[in-house]
Amino acid sequence: MTLDRYAIFQRLNVAPRGIFIVAMHIEFSGTLVFECQYDPEKREPFQLIFEGCKHIACRWNSEAATSPDVADVVSMFLGEGNYQEQAIIHTDLFEITLSYQRLIIQKAQVVWSDAFESALQSVAQE
Predict the structure, then answer these.
(1) Residue 118 belongs to what domain range?
(2) Dihedral, CA atoms, 23, 28, 32, 37, nearest 10 degrees?
(3) Taking the model in full, what pTM does it have?
(4) Per the structure, how many domains does the chain have?
(5) In this predicted model, which residue has the larger pLDDT, 97 or 15?
(6) Residue 62 phi/psi, 5° resolution?
């Protein structure tokens, strides 16, 4: 299943608003974590966690006129896990392309995993 940025709002059960990236880090296990916020007024936090990354490419926008404290997401294509389709995250500061095994979208106590949804679809088909 290919996901776009609106899938994030569906998984978090919130209305579509802006998305901002405030930090990102790569773990030695191949996990890339984006610390994000949605809703420009309330700045509600959530995480995009890409596990099992095999390829990560980043291009920085050296002409960005904004403060590097936060990156405003311009477009987001979350691709598909199990290395089926790359994710592309384009912000005003950078663009990242990555292939990954599994995606987790996490907000406080709300956690969604593409592996969990696949399991639910399998049960529903039985």
Answers:
(1) 3-125
(2) -30
(3) 0.79
(4) 1
(5) 97
(6) -70, -15
